[in-house]
Fold each of these.
Amino acid sequence: MNVPLANLAHTRSGDKGDTCNVGVIAYQLKDYPVLVREVTAERVKVFFGELVKGKVERYELPNLGALNFLLHEALGGGGTVSLRLDAQGKTLGAALLRMEIEARG
Amino acid sequence: MTRRLSYPGVEKTMIRIANGQGFWGDWLEAPVRLIEQGPIDYLVLDYLAEITMSILQKQREADPSLGYARDFPPLIGRIAKRMVERNVRVIANAGGVNPVSCAEAVRKAAPGIKVAVVLGDDVLGRIDEFLGKGYRMADMDTGLPLETIREKIQSANAYIGAFPLAEALSTGAQVVIAGRSTDTALALAPMVHHFGWSDTDWDKLAAGTIAGHIIECGAQCTGGNCQVDWQNIPNMADIGYPIVEAAPDSTFVVTKHPGAGGRVHSDTVKEQLLYELGDPKSYITPDCVADFTSIQLADSGPDRVRVSGIHGRPRPATLKLSISHANGWKATGTLVYSWPQALQKAQAADRIVRQRLEMLGLRFDEIYTEFLGVNACHGPLARPCADPPEVQLRMGVRGQDRKAVDRFTRELIPLVLNGPPGATGFGEGRPLVREIVAYWSALVPREEIRTSVEVLG
C-alpha cells in the first residue's frame, strides 16, 4: 500500500551554499528500515526533478531513525546570490512529505 | 540564587548553558527571559551568519567604531544587574569585524562588567601573505582558486574554536566577545573551561560540540519550526530558549525553564540535529570531528532529553576561512493580481516585463519569476490550484551591471496602469537594488591563526 512519506516521517531542511540538506526522521524507530528501503537517493532525485540540478547524496543515522539528504545545486545559486523566495530551502523538507512510499515493513 | 565563580579543574558539578540568540535578528526578549525565568550559569549568543561579516565590514568602512552586532551592548546593559546577582557569564560572537569596539560599547552600557575579547580571527589583511606562502585558498564548493575573486574580497575571517574562548573565560571576564568563532564553540567553551577538558579528549569535545549544535539555533530545538504536533506546542508566544545541563563526563540534558512555553522532546531535538547537517560521521569543527551517528537520545522527563554516547575524532590540521566578496547586483519586486484569472494575469505581466527589458537591450545573469500562492516554495511539485483568489508576482534579476538592475526596478509599477487588470500591492514603491555579497570558504594551516585575549575593565 502506498502512503505519503508524511505518514511515517517528519523533515527539516536548511542550506549550505547552493546545497539544500533535508533530514528525514521516522516518527517511530520501527519504520526506519522502510525509509532506508523506500527513500533512496535516486528516488529523491527523481522526485525533486528540475528543482535539484545536481546530484543527491544520502547518509544514514540509524541511531536517530533518520536519513540525511544533500541536494546539490538546488537553491538557485544559494545564499545571497539566489533570487528565490526560499533561497535557504527551508520549505523543501516539507515538499518531500508528499513523496509516495510503500509502507509495508 | 547565587553561584560562586568556578575555575578549571576546581568545580566538577553540572553547569547550565543557555542559548538566547540563534542569529542576529532573533527574538530580543529571549536572552532576558532566560536570565529572569530560572537558573543558568552561561548565556551564549550566536550573532553571525556567513554573510553577516561582510555587512559588518561595510559598516566599519563607513564608521571605524562600528562593525559589530549593535544589539549586543544594549542587551548587556539591560541584563547586567541580573548577571552580577546570579553570576551568569555571557559568551557571544557579537564582535564581528570589530570586537574591541564592541567591548568598549559594552563597557559603556554596563560600566561595572569585566569584558574579555578574543582577537586573531580577522585575516583580511593577511590574504596576500597567505597567497605568497602558496596557500591556494580554493573555494571548497567550486575548487576555483582565490585569484578569481582576489580584487573583490570584502572580509576574511578564520573560524576559531572553543579553546580561545575558554582562555578568555579563565580571565574571570563576565562577558566574552569573539569575532568569527564557530556557533558550536560558544557552548563548548564553558565546558572546556569549567571541567578542565583536554584539547585531545575527542569524545568529550565532540559531545560539547553536538550540545552546541543542538542549541545554536535557539528555539529551533525547543519547539520552534517543528513539524511534529506543531498545533499543540504549548505557549509558543513565550517559547523557552534551550538550556544544556552539562555534566563533567560529557553527557548532557537539553531542557528549558519550567513554565516557559515550547517543548523539548526527542522529536524537536532530532529535527535540530539534522538541521544544516552534511556527512553525519564527520561534523568538522576547529575543535574536533564529531560523529552524529554515535548520538543516543532518551526522553528522561517532561521537556528533558538526555544525550550520551557521543564519539569524536581528532580535529583537522586546517582551519576554515569565511571570505566574502562582491558579486554583482540584484533586485526583486512584487505585484499582486486578484481574481479572476489571477495567475494568468501575473504570467502575462511577467512576459511583458521580460519583453520590455529585451526592448531596452538589457542583459542579466538571471531573470527569475515566481508566483506566490502557486509555486514559490515547492515549484512544480506544488499541486495546481484552479483560479486562486489572488497571486503575487515576484520577479527578480541579477547581474554585474548596476544600472541595468536599477532600470529593472522601474519596470514593475507601470504595469498597474499599462498591463493586465487588477494589479495592486505596489505600496512600498520600487524595489531596492542590493549588492550581492557572496561567500567563499577555503582552508589554511591552523598554525597560521594565532588568537589572543584582551581584557577590558
Note: Residues 1-10 of chain B have pLDDT under 50 and may be disordered.
Amino acid sequence: MYQTCNEHHFSFIFKTYEKSLRNFLYYKFGDEDQAFDTAQEAFITLWKHCSDVPWEKAKGYLFTVAYKKALKVVAHKKVVLQYAEKVEPNLSTNESPEFLIEEAQFKQKLLNAIDALKPHQKEAFLMHRIDKIKYREIAEALDISVKAVEKRIHQAMLNLKKHIEHLH
Amino acid sequence: MKDENYLAKLLTDELTATEKNKIPPEDLQIFEAIKKHSAELETPLNKDVSKMLATVLHSPKKKKRYRMSIFQYASIAAAVLICISLGIFLNNPKTTYYAQRGTAKKVALPDGSEVQLNADSQISYNTKNWSKERTIQLEGEAYFKVKKGSSFRVETQKGTVTVLGTQFNVKDRATSLLVTCYEGRVQVSNNNTSVILTPGNSITLTKNEWIENKTFVNQPEWTQQQIRFEKTQLHEVIAELERKYNITIQTNGSVNNSKYYTGTIPANDLTIALSVIEQSFKVRFEQQNQNSYTLKEH
C-alpha cells in the first residue's frame, strides 16, 4: 500500500504533480518565481502533515493548500502561454498554405482570447486543457462544485468564440 | 438545449451526437478548433525543480499520534510472545559472513575489529560469547585488523592463529595455509608445532613443511586490487583466478606443475591477468564464452 510519509512514495506524488501544481499557480499569479515558491510551500505542508493525509487524498490536499496560500498573494501579471512544438512536421498532409496561414492566425487569436478571459474562467479552462485535470478535481482544488466548474468552462468557451469572431 | 453547460461536455467528449447537432455548424467548427488548439498549449515555465524535492523531504514532518485499538494492542502482545518463544527454541547465536566468488566483503566485528573477506571466503563466530572469547572460524582468505583486547583466535582446518591487537592475513587453501603478519605479534599453531610471527614475516604451512617468508608491503595485495603469488604452481594460480574473477578454466586433464610463479597480477583486469600468466607459464587461455576459458599448453 502506498504511504504519503514514505519518501519513495512521496517522490512519486512530487514527480506526478509538481508541473501541474506550478502551472495552476502560474495561472493565478502569472509569475513563475511566485508559482515556484508557493508550490514548494504546498509540498512542504503536505510532507509535514503526511501522517494525516492518506495517499488517495494527497493530490487534492496539495492543490487545496496551494489554493489557500495563493489567496494571500496579490500579484497579477500577464499569463504567457505558448504552443507546444509539433513532434512530427506536417509534411505529408495535403493542407494548403492558405489553410496553414489561417490556422496560425486562429492560434494567435485564441491566445488573445484566452488572455481576455475572466481570471476564474481562465484558470479552470487552462487546468483542463493544459494539465488535463478532471472537472471533479478542479472543483476540489478550487473548493467549488463540479457544476460550477462546468459553468466556468462553458462560459469560457462562449467568451473565447465571441472574442475570436469579433477579431474577424 | 437540455444541458446548460453543454460546451463543458464537448471538451470531455461526453456530448451526444443529437446534442452536438443542435449547435450551428459554423459555431461548432470554432468550438472544435478551440478544443483542438487549446490542448496544444503549454506554459513557459522552465525553472529547475531538481532541488525542490530534496528541500521538501528535508523539511520537518509532524509526529503521528498513534491511537491503537484493543485489537492492535493484542496483536502486538501476540507478536512479542511469538518472538520470545522463537528466541528460546531457535537460539542460534552464530553469525556467518560469506564473500561470493568474484567479490570481496568488509565486516565489522562487535568489538570494532575489522575483517576483509577475499572472494569465496567465509567467517563465522559466536555472537553470544564474543565479549568473552574472540574466536572466528575461517574458510578461505581474510585480512584482519584486530582491536587491542583479550586474545583473538582465527581457527582454520589446518591450524590456529592467535593474536593480541594487530593486523594480519590468513589464507587457507586446499593444500596450504599462509599467514602474514603486518603489525603486532601473531602466533600460528597446529597440533604439532607453533611459531610466532613478527611484522613483515609470513609462514606457509603445507602437508609436510613450514616455510618462512618475508613481505615488503604493509597490507595484503588483494585488498589493493592485486593478486600476489609466492612460488605458486599453475593449478593454484588457476584456482585463484577462478575465485577472484568468478570464471571457470577448463584444464582438460593434468596441469604441468613443474613451474612456479612469483609475482603480482591485477585483480580487476582479467585480460592483463590472463596474459601475464600465459607468458609466465607459456600457456594459452582460449575463451569459450563470457565466463569460461580453456587452458591450452604449448
Note: Chain A touches chain B through 53 residues (CB under 8 Å).
